[in-house]
């Protein structure tokens, strides 16, 4: 005679699983709006807190003129400028061309003529604030002439093409990292070579589009391609390395660092001086900010002041490669 099978434990198990599913739904419903709010805050906060603050301006003028100008600008817009006195007109122009200052000002007391140097290649806001400074000096009866030393290209006079760089730099690195993590588990060499190959070809393609396709970039094409490749590789290798150690959770962590920190603080559109400090400076130590600053230096400033950005990108790439290696060693030990 067969023994009847009790259905109570099975029913209880189904109810338990269903209860857990509803808890998961509740957690997702509560968590994702928080993530959306944080993402919005990450992009809006730097924009609303941005503005002129201690902008470095090289100046060559008699001391009384420097003092008067500093007092007048502080009264109109406190701490907007940080005037750096230099010895000659050539030094003023050189400081702007080498990215030591966002603009420059020289004054000829004999003729009452002032020359203001601007560099649009630093970012859109700086020529505008220098133009406001010129307007204030003209209101005092001075003759002011404007000289642009690092203009954007004729095909992109507003520099709007650079604003799109965040997409290939961020998502190019993250997508390649996700692919390397899911397709080549336990294969560190495949991940390293794959990430570097995607970055190299991606940098070449993006540089070709921006340089030859739309005329946004005007510097050395191969240096621009290398800078873009290093920017993609810096993100890709680090996120791939985190994925090697933590799995897809590591890829998620890398995505958070890229989307919530590296991209909003990069200053791609405005340059890092315009962002609230110290966040603007911190952004230059992240891959996207370093790549954007480097690309401006190559394209508009004859490669000046790019050494720091090359170093930052190299360090991120090295850290990513080490993380991939450590993940590979750990996986081999676990398998053994």
Provide a concise account of the structure shown.
With 336 residues, the chain is α/β, with parallel strands linked by helices. It contains eleven helices and five strands, in the order αβαβαββαβααααααα. The chain crosses the membrane at residues 22-45, 161-180, 192-214, 226-246, 253-275, 310-329.
Key descriptive features of the protein:
11 helices, alpha/beta, five-stranded mixed beta sheet, 336 residues, 2 domains, 63% helix, single chain
Report on this structure.
This is Membrane protein. The chain crosses the membrane at residues 22-45, 161-180, 192-214, 226-246, 253-275, 310-329. Keywords: Membrane, Transmembrane, Transmembrane helix. By secondary structure, this protein is α/β, with parallel strands linked by helices. It is built from 11 helices and 5 strands; from the N terminus they run H-E-H-E-H-E-E-H-E-H-H-H-H-H-H-H. It folds into 2 domains: 55-148, D-Maltodextrin-Binding Protein, domain 2 (3-Layer(aba) Sandwich), CATH 3.40.190; 160-335, no CATH class. The protein has a 5-stranded mixed sheet, sandwiched between helices. Strand 4, helix 4 and strand 5 form a beta-alpha-beta unit. The protein starts with 7 loop residues before the first helix and ends with a helix. The model has no long low-confidence stretch (mean pLDDT 87).
List the secondary-structure elements in sequence, H or E: HEHEHEEHEHHHHHHH
Shape: elongated
**Overall structural domain count:** 2
What structural class should be given to the helix and strand makeup?
Answer: alpha/beta
Give the termini distance in whole angstroms. Answer: 51 Å
Whole-number mean pLDDT: 87
Q: What is the number of E strands?
A: 5
The biggest beta sheet is recorded as:
5 strands, mixed
Unreliable residue stretches: none
Number of helices: 11
Strand content: 5-15%
Percent of residues in helices comes to: 55-70%
Give the radius of gyration. Answer: 26 Å
Sequence of strands across the biggest β-sheet: 2-1-3-4-5
Transmembrane segments: 22-45, 161-180, 192-214, 226-246, 253-275, 310-329
Keywords: Membrane, Transmembrane, Transmembrane helix
Protein name: Membrane protein
Organism: Corynebacterium doosanense CAU 212 = DSM 45436
């Amino acid at each position: 005679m067969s023994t009847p099978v009790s259905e109570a434990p099975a029913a209880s198990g189904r109810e338990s699983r269903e209860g857990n599913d509803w808890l998961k739904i509740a957690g997702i419903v509560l968590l994702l709006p928080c993530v959306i709010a944080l993402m919005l805050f990450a992009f809006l906060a730097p924009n609303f807190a941005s503005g002129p603050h201690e902008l470095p301006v090289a100046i060559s003028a008699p001391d009384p003129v420097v003092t008067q100008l500093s007092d007048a600008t502080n009264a109109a817009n406190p701490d907007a400028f940080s005037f750096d006195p230099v010895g000659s007109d050539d030094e003023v122009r050189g400081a702007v061309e080498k990215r030591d200052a966002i603009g420059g000002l020289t004054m000829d007391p004999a003729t009452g003529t002032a020359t203001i140097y601007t560099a649009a290649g630093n970012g859109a806001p700086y020529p505008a604030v220098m133009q406001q400074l010129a307007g204030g000096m003209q209101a005092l009866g001075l003759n002011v002439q404007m000289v642009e030393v690092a203009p954007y290209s004729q095909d992109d006079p507003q520099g709007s093409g650079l604003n799109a760089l965040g997409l290939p730099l961020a998502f190019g690195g993250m997508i390649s990292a996700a692919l390397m993590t899911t397709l080549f588990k336990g294969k560190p060499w495949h991940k390293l070579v794959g990430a570097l190959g995607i970055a190299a070809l991606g940098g070449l393609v993006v540089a070709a589009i921006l340089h030859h396709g739309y005329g946004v970039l005007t510097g050395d094409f191969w240096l621009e391609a290398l800078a873009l490749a290093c920017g993609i590789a810096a993100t890709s290798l680090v996120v791939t390395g985190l994925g090697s150690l933590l799995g897809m959770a590591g890829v998620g962590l890398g995505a958070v660092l890229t989307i919530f920190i590296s991209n909003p603080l990069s200053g791609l559109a405005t340059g890092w001086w315009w962002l609230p400090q110290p966040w603007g400076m911190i952004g230059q130590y992240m891959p996207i900010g370093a790549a954007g600053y480097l690309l401006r230096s190559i394209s508009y400033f004859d490669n000046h002041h790019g050494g720091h950005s090359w170093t930052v990108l190299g360090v991120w790439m090295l850290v990513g490669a080490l993380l991939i290696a450590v993940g590979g060693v750990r996986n081999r030990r676990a398998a053994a």
